Automatic annotation (TrEMBL):
This protein's name: Putative rtex-1 dt
Source organism superkingdom: Eukaryota
Gene3D superfamilies: Endonuclease/exonuclease/phosphatase (3.60.10.10)
InterPro entries (alphabetical): Endo/exonu/phosph_ase_sf
Native source organism of the sequence: Panstrongylus megistus
Length: 251
C-alpha cells in the first residue's frame, strides 16, 4: 500500500485561484514508504495534487483505513491544478460496511437563478379513506386566496394541503417498513449504531483502546448481519417445503 505521510507541500502561488485547499497537507498517518515516494513523484510529473489533508472537510488528514491489522491513510483523491478551482471540498466519511472509509469530494456549481418547482408528494391511495380525504382537502381549499400568493407560494400551499389531508391517518410503522432488507431488525440497527459511534470516537481520539473496541464491535455487527440473513433464508426454505397448494405459496 502507498503511504505518503505529509509529502507534497506545494508552492503557495500554485493555489492563488483556489482558496478551498491549503498548500501544506496534514495527516494522522505520518509514515512514508518507498511506494509512497514513487506515488508522489508520479503525481508531480503528471501535475496531480493530493486532496487528502488540505481541505476544510479534512483539516486533520483523517485515516481512510481502520481495521484489525492497523490504521492508515491509503485511499487518495487527486486532481489537476486546472480542476482545483472547480472543487469545493474533500472529506473522509464514517461508515462501517468496510475497513476502507469512503472518501468524498464536492464540486462547485453556479447558483440557479430560475425557480425550481418542488416535486409533488406521492402516496399510496387507499379508497377506504376517500371521503375523509376529500372533506379535508375541500376544507383547506376554501381558505385559499389567490390574491395573496404568487405561483411558487401557491404550489407550496397546495402541496401542504395534500400532506395535511393525507397524514391525518398515519399507520404505525414496524421494522419491516423501516428497514430495506426483511432480515434487518432493531438488533442489527443497534449493533451498527454502536460500531459507528466507536469509529467516530476513534477518529477523534486516535486511542488504541477505542480502536480495539471498534474493530470488535464492527466484526460482531458484520457477523450478526450474516447470521440474520442466513437464518431468514433458511426459514423461508422451510416454509416453501411446507407449501402444498398455490394459495399457501402466495400467502
Amino acid at each position: 500500500n502507498v503511504r505518503i505521510g505529509l509529502l507534497q507541500e506545494l508552492n503557495p502561488e500554485i493555489l492563488n485561484d483556489c482558496n478551498n485547499f491549503d498548500y501544506v497537507r496534514n495527516s494522522k498517518d505520518v509514515i512514508v514508504n518507498l511506494r509512497g515516494k514513487k506515488f508522489i513523484e508520479l503525481c508531480n510529473e503528471l501535475g496531480l495534487i493530493v486532496l487528502n489533508g488540505r481541505s476544510r472537510g479534512d483539516r486533520e488528514g483523517h485515516l481512510t483505513f481502520v481495521g484489525a491489522r492497523g490504521s492508515s491513510v491509503i485511499d487518495f483523491c487527486c486532481g489537476s491544478i486546472q480542476i482545483l478551482p472547480l472543487l469545493d471540498d474533500f472529506s473522509v466519511k464514517s461508515e462501517t460496511f468496510s475497513d476502507h472509509l469512503p472518501i468524498v469530494f464536492s464540486i462547485l456549481t453556479a447558483e440557479l437563478k430560475e425557480r425550481i418547482f418542488p416535486l409533488l408528494p406521492q402516496f399510496k391511495w387507499n379508497s377506504k379513506y376517500r371521503t375523509r380525504y376529500r372533506e379535508l382537502l375541500i376544507t383547506k381549499a376554501e381558505q385559499f386566496s389567490s390574491q395573496k400568493h404568487d405561483i411558487q407560494a401557491a404550489i407550496q400551499w397546495f402541496i401542504e394541503c395534500i400532506n395535511m389531508a393525507t397524514f391525518w391517518h398515519k399507520p404505525q410503522a414496524n421494522s419491516q417498513q423501516l428497514f430495506r432488507n426483511p432480515w434487518y431488525d432493531w438488533q442489527c440497527f443497534r449493533a451498527r449504531k454502536k460500531s459507528l459511534a466507536l469509529l467516530n470516537l476513534y477518529r477523534k481520539t486516535n486511542s488504541h483502546f477505542v480502536k480495539k473496541a471498534y474493530t470488535e464491535a464492527n466484526f460482531n455487527y458484520k457477523q450478526l448481519i450474516v447470521n440474520k440473513k442466513t437464518l431468514f433464508y433458511e426459514e423461508m426454505v422451510q416454509r416453501f417445503k411446507m407449501v402444498k397448494y398455490s394459495k399457501d405459496f402466495w400467502d
